[in-house]
Amino acid sequence: MKRKIDFLIIGSGVAGLSYALKVAEHGEVCMITKANEDESNTKYAQGGIAAVMYSPDSYEKHIQDTLIAGDGICDEEIVRMVISESTERVNELISWGAKFDKTESGEYDLAKEGGHSEHRILHHKDNTGYEIERALLAAVHKHPNIEILDHHFAIDILTQHHLGEEVNSRTPNIECYGAYVLNLRSNKIETILAKTILMAAGGAGHVYSTTTNPTIATGDGVAMVYRAKGRIEGMEFYQFHPTSLFNPEESPSYLISEAVRGFGGILKTIDGEEFMQKYDERRSLAPRDIVARAIDNEMKIRGDDYVYLDCRHLNKEELIKHFPNIYEKCLSIGVDITKDYIPVVPAAHYMCGGIKVDKKGRSSINQLYAIGECSSTGLHGANRLASNSLLEAIVYSHHAAIDAIEKFNTLKFCDSIPDWDAEGTAHPEEMVLLIQSLREVQSIMTNYVGIVRSDIRLLRAFDRLEILYKENEALYLKTIISPKLCELRNLINVAYIIIKQARNRKESRGLHFTVNYPKGS
Ligand code: FAD
Ligand code: SIN
Q1: How far, in Å, is the centroid of ligand 2 from the Cα of 259?
Q2: What is the domain count for the chain?
Q3: Which of 182, 156, 137 has the alpha carbon at shortest distance from 13?
Q4: 205 and 94: one domain?
């Protein structure tokens, strides 16, 4: 069965939803999403969304903070574009129904996070993403032109390759015609043809053993575009959040927002000594790459499994008021943040690189846009400034929507795309092998491609991953498609790209730190 649609969107986080609301004014929208419609990284965002709202803040200050965090390789034109549109886009988000906390005087209660020189983070308590996802979904549900297909898993995007033509990274005009999508209710693979396709499939935290990301974050978008020979960049810059709750039985890891440090929380070793002054004059509020590396170093030299975040000196009522969910969560494992130290460790958190796009969110493949965490716009450079990702998503959904609206009526469906051929495939002989392979990928990435890297570790990772790649490709060809199999394949692709791009970068910069090329060498 073939479905035809003007605008196909893969992913229902902030990027996909905000784009949907815009393009739906002009044509029919089909949004597919692989789990429940609200399951996304967006839903778990805590700290908030960075935007310039009042003086003494200014666009220039936010721009400079972003450039500094990005360690010299942000695209300054893009930084200027995104930040100078922040106020307008955040106001639009508010007009769609998102609510942010205000002070008693009625102004937005702006928080501060690492690397920010001013208070500029709009937030909804400590669950801002939940509020944004709620508001956007409510607006989308009211729109007659938007259909959401939940529990629909995008397997691959369609290009000339599916018409039997050879496509490689030098093919001048790769076209995207839609996607093969596994309907998880019927277990049938459907062909969705579209005039324009938006990839908004989010991050890939599960390429590492410990991550703050929900289980949907398996790099599907990047992997699909990579297989379709689209351009991927900046994948060596995987951001580790410095402070996830140390609770080894729990996966994914629970985040302790950077806003807690912005509120006055201080990092300490487990004997109660402050240590960040050894690493950066901004101490616990230095940019994330610096703080995560400092924690990693302290844990390694001391042989400790975690460090502490100390909030005991902060006003108890205010702390609970600002961070009610973090308070409750910690309490549930016996940690009262008003009286006890919070044990924390770094965890994989955000994919700074991704599908290379231009100012309008256009990828290197025609008709294919990419926005949100799966994209690489140039905003983050070598290290994302906290709370800039929700902002990036809403600015790019605006730009991409304008371009897609302008073009879609001139485009045609590619009717000659064949339906999925499942001949010769069977159920996997041993499902457990998929789980073992997944753990192997995660442990390769954690052990050799983590916060501190070296040539020898990257080579070791590359060699070991190759074995898994070959095994899994062979399995993929003869096995009935399932989300677990596809996610494993995608994570192997993503791990490969991270390792390859890390090996190509012969320097330490931002999140990519290698002992072979120390900073300044
Ligand atoms: P997501 O919100 O992750 O949405 C991706 C969507 O794609 C999901 O619906 C998913 O199910 C779907 N999908 C994926 N693969 C497929 C497939 N194969 N087929 C169909 N559907 C698919 N950023 C900030 O700016 N401020 C914060 O305070 C903040 N806090 C964070 C806290 C946590 C714990 C985490 C994990 C992230 C945080 N971030 C924060 C980062 C930010 O939340 C994300 O970068 C952003 O929400 C990504 O939005 P997105 O729409 O690109 O992707
Ligand atoms: C946090 O609340 O610390 C997360 C902010 C972000 O990832 O931007």
Answers
A1: 7
A2: 3
A3: 137
A4: yes
- Say how far apart CA 308 and CA 342 lie, in whole Å: 5
Average pLDDT over residues 452-463: 98
Q: Which of the residues 288, 362, 489, 509 is marked catalytic?
A: 288
Ligand 1 pocket, Cβ-based, cut-off 6 angstroms: 10-16, 32-35, 39-42, 44-49, 128-129, 153-154, 200-203, 212-213, 216, 220, 255, 350, 372-373, 387-390, 393
Q: Is 288 a catalytic residue?
A: yes
Query: Is the predicted pLDDT of residue 65 greater than 80, yes or no?
Result: yes
Note down the domain range covering 493.
Answer: 428-480+482-504
What number does the ligand 2 atom closest to the CA of 239 have?
7
Same-domain status, 140 and 220? yes
CATH number assigned to the domain comprising residue 74: 3.50.50.60
Per cent of the chain over pLDDT 70 is 100
pTM: 0.98
Two structure tokens written together for 31: 């949004």
Residues 369 and 223 in one domain: yes
Alpha carbon distance 521, 515 (integer Å): 10
Same domain for 194 and 277: no
Listed in sequence order, the residues at least 6 apart from 209 whose beta carbon sits closer than 8 Å to its beta carbon are: 439, 442, 443, 445, 446
What is the per-residue pLDDT for 347?
98
Mean pLDDT of 429-458: 95
Three-state SS sequence of 324-388: HHHHHHHHHCCCCCCCCCEEEEEEEEEECCEEECCCCCECCCECEEECHHHEECCCCCCCCCCCC
